[in-house]
């Protein structure tokens, strides 16, 4: 057998294996059970208003709030990290290492239960507020590292040109370095946004009031109440809604990255 | 003691640039080992030498983009190595042109020329734009004010960079190998602009490999090697009749 004939036979047999696996799955799968447990029609028709106008709305709202808060925190952290005063740098580094090293869930539990018990301090917005502060604290640490990488990616010649024209360090940072760094970090920051969106599901653990429930908490409720109670249909619903938001975002990131690559 | 150096207290008789016993090292690596050197007002001084000779470092010390290890640098009589000197103010009077142009890619050509006028000189937008347009005209790029740097050729970018430096109305210009990153056919336009500046009486310190430029418009040629000034003098004299062995070897390779 020639070399090319061998290659063709190999490719063909791999297709055959794949086809066989699909056929086996289709024949063995219990389609009735799958439909009743994950795709119960009443679960979609009966719950969609709550799922979209409470669950998805709150998920998006919490994502935006914690993203903005985290971004402001990240800018402060990165400026501290670049500061000429060493203790500022140490503090920022310690903060970033601490919050990148902890699971977000642990931070949420600390803010939701630990801090109120220990200090009697309740964050604004009650339980949700505590959870959002926790998400900001974590997101800020990650975004600070992203921002720092972006600032370091701006060529040194940019700073030198600005300083040689007599612009002082703060103006150079604000009007020359930062705008270019932000452009560089838009794709990775959008990734942070997607991660943050998924992390809002962790707020499930601190117990949210009815109008504050986000997608995951609401879906968990509808597993034991409403038209699809006793099935996992509401989870499927939540999953589809998450994907409806995250997939366009990740596609957007891929598009921006390829555009950046081309313009280089 | 910054009140000892108010911004306009210029010593009219002082040379534009005076360097005294300048040393610069990176760790154990000594790049400049005792440079004494001056540029008079209105003079065009060209600095040549093999790569690694310290010529760019010397130039970058003059506006303190590099921190001298020891020694003194006076710009129009003001000691810029003195920590009390208002460095940003002095820098507005020293134009600098880089090998890699270093235009701001996120700004239009016009904005490139106005941003520092507004931020560092406190000029209003109207005044800054007027001065910017005059300088774009001077470098032959009046029609490019709305373009972004990425859409210009290397030669055009470098001319914009020169116009950007000129828009600060500097008393002197530093050029750090301004044509080394350019395609050969684009070098001429940039050199023409520099010649025009020289004829207008601009004080210039030019690190370059363009011997023709040095010969034609230079008032003084400085040859550096190994962190010291080996030889300096009239450009034609140095180029045709070098006195030192190292100068002879270098020139025989590049001419």
Question: If you had to describe this structure to a student in words, what would you say it looks like?
Answer:
The complex is a heterodimer of chains A (about 260) and B (about 260). In chain A, about 80% of the residues lie in helices and about 0% in strands. Chain A is mainly alpha-helical. The mean pLDDT of chain A is about 90. Chain B is α/β, with parallel strands linked by helices and about 260 residues long. Chain B is globular and about 55 Å long. The interface of A and B includes residues 162 and 175 of A.
Q: What is the average of the pLDDT values of chain A?
A: 91
Supply Rg of chain B.
Answer: 18 Å
Order of helices and strands of chain B: EEEHEEHEHHHEHEHEEHH
What's the SSE pattern of chain A? HHHHHHHHHH
Which pair of protein chains has the largest interface, and what are the residue counts?
A-B, 19 and 26 residues
**Helix residue percentage of chain B:** 25-40%
Shape of chain A: flat
Name the structural class of chain A: mainly alpha
- Measured between the Cα atoms of the first and last residue of chain A, the distance is 47 Å
Principal-axes geometry of chain B comes out as globular
- How many DSSP helices of chain B? 9
Terminal residue distance of chain B: 50 Å
Question: What's the short version?
Answer:
The complex is a heterodimer of chains A (264) and B (255). Chain A has 264 residues and is an all-alpha fold.
SSE layout:
The complex is a heterodimer of chains A (264) and B (255).
Chain A: H1 3-28, H2 31-38, H3 41-81, H4 86-101, H5 104-119, H6 126-153, H7 156-164, H8 169-199, H9 215-221, H10 233-263
Helix pairs in contact in A: 3-4, 3-6, 3-8, 3-9, 3-10, 4-6, 5-6, 6-8, 7-8, 8-10, 9-10
Chain B: E1 17-26, E2 29-39, E3 44-48, H1 55-62, E4 70-75, E5 78-79, H2 87-91, E6 94-97, H3 109-121, H4 125-138, H5 154-166, E7 172-176, H6 184-199, E8 203-207, H7 211-217, E9 220-225, E10 228-233, H8 235-240, H9 245-254
Parallel strand pairs in B: 3-8, 3-9, 6-7, 7-8
Antiparallel strand pairs in B: 1-2, 1-4, 4-5, 9-10
């Amino acid at each position: 057998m020639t070399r090319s004939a061998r290659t063709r036979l190999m490719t063909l047999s791999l297709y055959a294996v794949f086809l066989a696996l699909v056929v086996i799955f289709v024949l063995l799968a219990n389609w009735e059970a799958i439909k009743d447990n994950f795709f119960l029609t009443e679960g979609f028709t009966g719950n969609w208003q709550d799922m979209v106008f409470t669950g998805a709305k709150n998920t998006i709202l919490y994502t935006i709030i914690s993203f903005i808060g985290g971004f402001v925190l990240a800018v402060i952290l990165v400026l501290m990290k670049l500061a000429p005063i060493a203790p500022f740098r140490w503090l920022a580094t310690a903060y970033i290492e601490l919050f990148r090293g902890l699971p977000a869930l642990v931070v949420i539990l600390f803010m939701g239960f630990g801090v109120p018990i220990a200090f009697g301090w309740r964050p604004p917005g009650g339980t949700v507020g505590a959870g959002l502060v926790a998400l900001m604290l974590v997101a800020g640490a990650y975004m600070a590292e992203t921002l720092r990488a972006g600032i370091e990616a701006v060529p040194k010649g940019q700073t030198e040109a600005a300083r040689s024209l007599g612009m002082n360090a703060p103006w150079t940072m604000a009007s020359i370095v930062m705008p270019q760094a932000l452009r560089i970090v838009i794709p990775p920051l959008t990734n942070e946004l997607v991660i943050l969106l998924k992390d809002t599901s962790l707020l499930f653990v601190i117990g949210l009031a009815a109008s504050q429930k986000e997608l995951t908490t609401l879906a968990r409720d509808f597993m034991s109440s409403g038209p699809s109670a006793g099935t996992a249909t509401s989870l499927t619903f939540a999953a589809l809604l998450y994907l409806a938001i995250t997939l366009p975002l990740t596609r957007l990131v891929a598009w921006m990255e390829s555009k950046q690559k081309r313009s280089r | 003691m910054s009140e000892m150096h108010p911004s306009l207290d210029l010593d009219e008789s002082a040379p534009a640039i005076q360097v005294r016993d300048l040393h610069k090292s990176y760790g154990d690596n000594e790049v400049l080992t005792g440079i004494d050197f001056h540029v008079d007002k209105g003079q065009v001084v060209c600095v040549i030498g093999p790569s690694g000779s310290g010529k760019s470092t010397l130039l970058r010390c003059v506006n303190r983009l590099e921190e001298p290890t020891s020694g003194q640098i006076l710009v129009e009589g003001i000691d810029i190595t003195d920590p009390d000197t208002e460095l940003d103010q002095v820098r507005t009077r020293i134009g600098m042109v880089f090998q890699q142009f270093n235009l701001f890619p996120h700004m239009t050509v016009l904005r490139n020329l106005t941003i520092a006028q507004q931020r560092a000189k406190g000029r209003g937008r109207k005044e800054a734009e007027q001065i910017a347009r005059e300088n774009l005209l001077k470098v032959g790029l009046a029609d490019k004010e709305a373009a972004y740097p990425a859409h210009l050729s290397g030669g055009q970018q470098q001319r914009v960079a020169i116009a950007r430096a000129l828009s600060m109305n500097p008393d002197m210009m530093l050029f750090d190998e301004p044509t080394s990153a350019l395609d050969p056919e684009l070098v001429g336009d940039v050199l023409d602009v520099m010649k025009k500046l020289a004829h207008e009486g601009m004080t210039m310190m030019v690190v370059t490999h363009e011997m023709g430029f040095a010969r034609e418009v230079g008032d003084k040629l400085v040859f550096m090697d190994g962190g010291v000034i080996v030889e300096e003098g009239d450009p034609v004299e140095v180029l045709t009749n070098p006195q030192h062995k190292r100068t002879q070897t270098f020139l025989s390779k590049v001419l």
